[in-house]
Structures are given as structure tokens and as C-alpha cells.
């Protein structure tokens, strides 16, 4: 997922649209993923502060792919056990009572109160996946996930940026004369999110299918999960792909991107005000100032934690029932490939009621929010570092 970043100005501030004049001393440069270095904010003739002026020239695709791959690999590897736990909680059979252990039988005799709901669910979860709580099981599906997710993320990111660039090139009214966003940016974001999901579905759907089957112990490894897909045939895989993309992936991407793009200008302004309070300290300082990776990460963390974390939080909450149904469909079709979404929904409702569709929602919110809060700052930091080094080498070559 592409986000903006900060980078040093090479030729001073570029004058924005709307008649605002750029300041003579280049301030901290605020650039989107699709921009050249431009002024983060400008002063008008009365000393007031103008809006953000953003061009629509996208950054180097190689840098985007590399930064996205690094951020994806680190984030998914660290947080994969949360994903596994989320998948298992969603598939928990609450209608099956685990056998009572001797110490638990003694507690029932000595205690007048029945065990709480949380303790009961933990016992059921532990019983349903007995012997499958080792690190190897918790990280099950991670090799498949990384194998598919890195090219998927690169495809998704480039598709999203390409569509945004195309739409902004066709419709120049994405911002009004004052530099503020109009309603068009929402439709641009929605169209770009849908286009990116459709283009990258060929990589995401097989990856998610194999990963969830491994996590739920219905497949005993990557080769077993791949064998299941092969035996079920292309038609069955297509029947899995269409509801996943339409029912879950597209709604999630739309909610997340619209929320993130809406919050991003506010976080930029908030960061600029913090820099002014610190005496005008610039994030993009001078080209001679040395920047470490962790310094960049620390600066980006606070700003992107809000926008990235909140966008992931909102999207995960609103699509929790859809994700639950998707997980159940993917796992249930291992036994019967002819099952439909309607069959799974009907069976879930008859056995568990409406609660079955929100089971695992808390774990999903925790996992997605943590994932977004880690991914966005890491992506921006890696990309900022790569852009800074590229600009340094360009300046060095020009001076020599």
C-alpha cells in the first residue's frame, strides 16, 4: 500500500496551484508517493497558510516495489501467529464440549460458579487444535504467504498508483483552486482500490486459500494445500475467487484507502506544526546531514500510526463478518468443493446464530490494526531512505 513520504528538496520549492507563492527558504518537503518534491505548505500575501499542493508524478516503481517487499516481509513474519490465532478462533466449534480434565473436575466440585465464557472458549480452542500449538504450527502457512504476498503486494501497489495517476491525469479537478480536495478524490480512491484488487486477485486468492487451510490444520503443509487446489480444479478455484474478491477484498480496500487518504493531509499538517514548534526543524534537513534508517522510522511512526492504524481498524471492524464467512467457505470447501457461500452461511446460522459471524472479530481487529500500524511506517521509512540515497547520488554525480 502506497503512502506519502518526506524527501529533501533538490531545487527549492515548486510553486503550487491556486496562485500561492512559494517561500524562498525551502521548508520540509511533503510529497505523496506520486509527487515530485513540493512545498508542504505555503504562505500567502497576508502571512496565512495555504493548502497542500501536490503534483501527480509518481515515484520510481523500483523503489516502490523494494520498499513494499521489505515492509511486507518484516510485518507478515512478525505478526503471523496473530493471523493464525484469528483464523482458528473464527472456525471454533462452540457446539462441541471438550472433555473435563481431572483438575477441572475438582474445581467444579469445590466451586459454586461455572467457568466463565472466556475460559470455556479457550478450553474449546485448545481441545479443537490439540497438539497444534508449537511454533511450527503457529507459523504454518508463512512460507506460502511470503512467496505469494511479495509479488502480490508489488502488483497491488503499482496497480493502485497507476490507476490514481490515470484518473488524476484525466480529471484535473481532484483539487480546487485553494488546493483542498474535492469529492473527486474519493471516487479516484475507490476506483483505484477496486482496480488494484481485481488485478492482483490471481495472486491473493490462491495464497489466502492455501494459508488458511494450513492454519486451520485442514492441510498438513504447503504441498498438501497446493495439492488440494490442484485436485479441485480451476473451476472450483474460480468459484472461490469470485466471492472472496467481491465479498471481502474490494470492500476492505475501499474502506481502508478512503479512510487513509482522508486522514493523510491532517497528519501532514499536524507534523508540520510540530516541526514549527521545535524551531523549524526540517525532516529533510540538508543533503549533508546523515540520516539513519531508525531516525526515519521514528519520525514517520507517530504520523503514520494514526492514519495507517485507524484506517486498518475501521476497515477490519466493518468487514469482520465478511472475513469470517470467507474463512469458513475456504475451509469448508476442502471436504466438499461444491459448497456455496449460501450453504456455509445457512449452516453457520443454524448452529451458532448471528454470533457465529462475528466470532474472531476482536482478533481480526487486533491483527489488522497492528499490521497496518507496522506496515505503513516501515514502508514509508524504507522508501524515504531509498529516495534520499537516490537524491544523494544524483547530487554527487551532478557536482562532480
Structure description:
The chain is mainly alpha-helical and 400 residues long. It has one domain (5-279, 289-399): Mitochondrial carrier fold. Helices cover 66% and strands 1% of the residues. The chain has helices at 61-90, 102-110, 117-128, 135-138, 142-170, 184-215, 222-277, 293-318, 320-332, 341-352, 355-358, 361-399; strands spanning 5-6, 30-31. A two-stranded antiparallel ribbon has the order 1-2. Helix 1 (61-90) crosses helix 5 (142-170), helix 7 (222-277) crosses helix 8 (293-318) and helix 8 runs antiparallel to helix 12. The longest helix has 56 residues, at 222-277.
What is the topological layout?
Layout: E1 5-6, E2 30-31, H1 61-90, H2 102-110, H3 117-128, H4 135-138, H5 142-170, H6 184-215, H7 222-277, H8 293-318, H9 320-332, H10 341-352, H11 355-358, H12 361-399
Antiparallel strand pairs: 1-2
**Mean pLDDT, rounded to whole units?**
73
Question: Biggest sheet, open or closed, and with what strands and sense?
Answer: 2 strands, antiparallel
> How many E strands?
2
- Output the structural class: mainly alpha
Total of helices? 12
CATH architectural designation: Alpha/alpha barrel
Kindly provide the name of the CATH class.
Mainly Alpha
The general outline is globular
What is the CA-CA span between the terminal residues? 37 Å
The number of domains is 1
Helix content: 55-70%
Q: Please mark out the parts with pLDDT under 50 across 5 or more consecutive residues, or reply none.
A: 1-58, 281-290
InterPro entries: MCP_dom_sf, MCP_transmembrane
Family: Belongs to the mitochondrial carrier (TC 2.A.29) family.
Pfam family, one: Mito_carr
Membrane topology: Multi-pass membrane protein
